[in-house]
Q: What sequence folds into this?
């Protein structure tokens, strides 16, 4: 099944069950001081759970552009190294705002996966909240009893607070959840290990695809829970992971969500990507594969952010986007031998692929391409020199820790974000002195504060009508530590 059809069938299924289909909110959040980017489907609805405002319909479904690169949910370090965590991904979701609850949510999830998508039941595991003494929340007997009517009991796994009690943040709506995991291992392996040890244990081929959250509590500032006035459902299913399961693959990058982008990289670089099915590859091919995965992942994050109005910049959310792009540029430079801008050429492929559901890239293709090309050109001007400096620093370093002042010089003069330098150092078995870096950064801040008190704005409204009121990043930049 093609990815376009996977998405469509999800939305059609929930539409036929009385849900209003709404568009994705922008990937960049402009009015939430606690969050820079949309990192889950529910972010745009959270006020409704708290009882502030009324949704257009008590049942809603959509696909939400998500970005998990900062704050509570930060998957950046895994991207490229595993085959199912992305920076930018789509989260398919259905919601009940005080309408249906566990029975309908679980039955629909099961019906969609096993009858519409036809995933064999024996490839699925589900998890149920085991309860928490600390919070005085009991074992989720209700969810267990509903699942019991659908799946063998030995496939229902109990999960703890970390995996099976979903919280928006330190405060706010929360509740027990039930996850659905799909076992993509070859048949011969399946009999070897079953049950709990597979689920939530990072087995690369037993992957969490869907989380169904039953919102019934509010976490108060003092840490205690109170019952919400109504019970809600909030679900999130990873679109690319679902496509992997339905297309019989063991890597998201082997689905048609990513193959057109990968083919374009192959065409530009003359290198080959090997699918997850090819085993025993050389160390060099492994590095090529990681670099290609990073690049085709990161270009999506950057292109969607720019199309939603967030240009790369030196502060706040703009700097997060710049860091992601520079990371991709350096992976290309070092491992794919790309010395000229090329990531911008992937935008056309992405724009065509996404056009039907997310026309914002196609409609601003030229702008997105130009911005990325300029960023590439400017970073490539200093990248080689910076890498050489870093090489010298490493050679001169006795021990395994590089001076923070040197890392600052790379940041300040060569535009190397510190996490990028850290990544390169890690590849060589080194780390750096972060405290020294911070001292240098503070010194520079004091200097530039003296020069100017005004911070420049990096938000641009590119699609009038597709964005809500923006209150400015100044507040966020001062409050959110960018890591
Ligand atoms: P994981 O345990 O795999 O990191 P999660 O529990 O953090 O996932 P949730 O917050 O429950 O994920 O999000 C709902 C769904 O979104 C997940 O079940 C998964 O399918 C998908 N998802 C989460 N993070 C990513 C990511 N970084 N890339 C792609 N899909 C993701
Ligand atoms: Mg996670
Ligand atoms: Mg999880
Ligand atoms: Mg989860």
A:
């Amino acid at each position: 099944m093609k990815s376009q059809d996977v998405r469509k069938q999800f939305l059609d299924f929930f539409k036929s069950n009385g849900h209003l289909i709404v568009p994705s909110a922008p990937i960049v959040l402009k009015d939430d001081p606690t969050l820079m980017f949309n990192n889950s489907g529910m972010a745009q609805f959270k006020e409704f759970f708290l009882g502030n405002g009324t949704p257009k319909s008590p049942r809603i479904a959509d696909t939400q552009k998500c970005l998990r690169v900062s704050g509570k949910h930060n998957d950046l370090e895994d991207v490229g190294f595993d085959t199912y965590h992305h920076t930018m991904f789509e989260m398919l979701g259905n919601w009940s705002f005080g309408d249906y609850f566990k029975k309908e949510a679980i039955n629909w999830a099961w019906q969609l996966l096993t009858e519409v998508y036809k995933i064999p039941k024996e490839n699925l595991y589900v998890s149920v909240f085991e309860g928490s003494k600390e919070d005085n929340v009991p074992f989720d007997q209700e969810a267990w009893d509903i699942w019991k009517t659908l799946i063998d009991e030995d496939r229902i796994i109990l999960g703890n607070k970390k995996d099976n009690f979903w919280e928006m943040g330190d405060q706010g709506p929360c509740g027990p959840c039930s996850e659905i995991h799909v076992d993509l291992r070859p048949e011969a392996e399946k009999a070897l290990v079953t049950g709990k040890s597979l689920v939530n244990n990072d087995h690369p081929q037993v992957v969490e695809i869907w989380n169904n959250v039953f919102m019934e509590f509010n976490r108060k500032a003092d840490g205690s829970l109170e019952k919400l006035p109504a019970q809600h459902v909030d679900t999130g299913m990873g679109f690319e992971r679902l496509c992997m399961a339905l297309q019989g693959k063991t890597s998201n990058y082997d689905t048609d969500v990513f193959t057109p982008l990968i083919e374009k990289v192959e065409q530009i670089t003359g290198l080959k990507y090997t699918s997850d099915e090819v085993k025993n590859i050389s160390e060099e091919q492994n590095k090529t594969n990681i670099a290609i995965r990073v690049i085709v992942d990161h270009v999506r994050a950057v292109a969607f952010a720019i199309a939603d109005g967030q240009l790369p910049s030196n502060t706040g959310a703009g700097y997060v986007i710049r860091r992601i792009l520079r990371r991709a540029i350096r992976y290309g430079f070092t491992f794919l031998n790309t010395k000229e801008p090329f990531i911008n050429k992937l935008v056309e492929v992405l724009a065509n692929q996404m056009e039907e559901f997310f026309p914002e890239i196609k409609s601003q293709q030229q702008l997105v391409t130009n911005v990325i090309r300029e960023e590439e050109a400017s970073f490539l001007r200093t990248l080689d020199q910076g890498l050489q400096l870093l090489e010298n620093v490493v050679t001169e370093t006795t021990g395994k820790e590089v001076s923070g002042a040197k890392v600052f010089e790379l940041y300040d003069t060569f535009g190397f974000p510190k996490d990028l330098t850290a990544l390169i150092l890690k590849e060589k078995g080194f780390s750096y002195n972060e405290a020294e870096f911070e001292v240098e950064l503070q010194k520079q801040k004091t200097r530039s504060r003296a020069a100017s008190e005004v911070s420049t704005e990096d938000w641009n409204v590119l699609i009038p009508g597709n964005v809500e009121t923006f209150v400015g990043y100044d507040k966020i930049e001062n409050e959110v530590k960018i890591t």
